[in-house]
Write a structure and sequence with these properties.
2 copies of one chain form a homodimer. By secondary structure, chain A is an alpha/beta fold. Chain A contains 8 helices and 7 strands, in the order H-E-H-E-H-E-H-E-E-H-H-E-H-E-H. Chain A has one domain: P-loop containing nucleotide triphosphate hydrolases (Rossmann fold), CATH 3.40.50.300. A 7-stranded parallel beta sheet of chain A has the order 3-2-4-1-5-6-7, sandwiched between helices. The first copy, chain A, is globular. Chain A starts with a helix and ends with a helix.
Chain lengths: ~220, ~220
């Protein structure tokens, strides 16, 4: 019974996700769903990514911020000078397609090329929920440990790209990049992997070029 | 409908949790449910805690390890020389009381004084599930950022204690201990707070003494 109800919820979500996807396609929008543990550096990577995209002037970005509570992240993002809206899930552990649908009218979709959706900090539940995005991007910080791709393989399987973050802290950890990369590829053989430090800028160019390469031509 | 079904699931879980609680009481067991993000240092803190408890010879510890996949954590814990069993949730984002009930026969409960249950790495969903534990303990690593108690208040509200981990990395982060402490106490005014580094041993004595103070006298 429990499995059946969960499947009904996912089916309903998938129908709304397809409606979101149609809206995004109509506006020629690249939509990236950023997923990772609490504190893996999603908002910080996003801040640096937005500032860099604005400076490079190829894409016009916007953002949707998902959190259980507070509007802190949307305020941080809005200070970057891009359109941003906050979703508070009031305890729910993931964003769903209905939440995204409800905030789209608050964004100037005609004036955007890429929309970042920052999911609730959670390496498990957001894997199951299609938001209508172009693709999921999973973040893993070096301070979390290199065993996470083996222990949380589902999200790596669902993601098109994986970003190893906080590379500036690598030297202070036992994180083995080769072990993490191997286990990511076991979960998803063709995953696109990045290693970045939003703080120092290490690895950011390749990440930004990848985003620009995915954006639909208008 | 969705809320109703979720409530039914929680009600069923609570009934099983009370059965677990009766078993723990019968064996005079202290049971701590450790909850935190993936990579916040649950297993490392547990390894050091177990080794220290064994050396101090006041309590006989055991452990239940929860993960989506792999038996890596139970193997790490078993190497400490304490009874340990692994639960693989196969994708589920939290442990529930039924999972705990199913593994209790594999543990020598008569020979234990304290049982640590390491939950799936997740700062959200495990908050809702009573496992029959004495209390929940939430872990937060300094590398995750000091905004987490404000952004994930539910789990802090449900926990009796909070352990700030990876204190040896504090100097490499922007983590503000006072801000984190303030927001923890907004969520839960009487939360017992610890600051530890399992790597250096900083703060471990107070944490161990607290555990020993909670254990039922036999």
């Amino acid at each position: 019974m429990r499995v059946k109800v969960f499947q009904d919820i996912l089916d309903a979500n998938d129908r709304l996700a397809e409606m979101n996807r149609a809206v995004f396609a109509e506006h020629h929008l690249l939509v990236l769903n950023l997923i990772g543990s609490p504190g893996c550096g999603k908002t910080t990577l996003l801040e640096k990514t937005l500032a860099s995209l604005l400076a490079r002037k190829k894409l016009r970005p916007g953002a949707v911020e998902g959190d259980l509570e507070t509007s802190r992240d949307a305020e941080r993002i809005a200070r970057c000078g891009v359109p941003a809206v906050q979703i508070n899930t009031q305890g729910a552990c993931h964003l769903d397609a209905a939440m995204i649908q409800s905030v789209l009218p608050a964004l100037p979709l005609n004036e955007l090329d890429v929309l970042f959706i920052e999911n609730v900090g959670n390496l498990v539940c957001p894997a199951d929920y299609d938001l209508g995005e172009t693709c999921k991007v999973v973040l893993l910080s070096v301070t979390e440990g290199d065993d996470k791709p083996a222990k949380y393989p589902y999200i790596f399987r669902k993601a098109r790209a994986a970003v190893v973050t906080k590379m500036d802290l690598l030297q202070h950890t036992d994180f083995a990049l080769d072990a993490a990369s191997r286990d990511m590829r076991i979960a998803k053989p063709d995953i696109v992997a990045f290693q970045v430090s939003a703080r120092t800028g290490e690895g950011m160019d390749r990440w930004l070029e990848w985003i620009e390469s995915l954006a639909p031509r208008k």
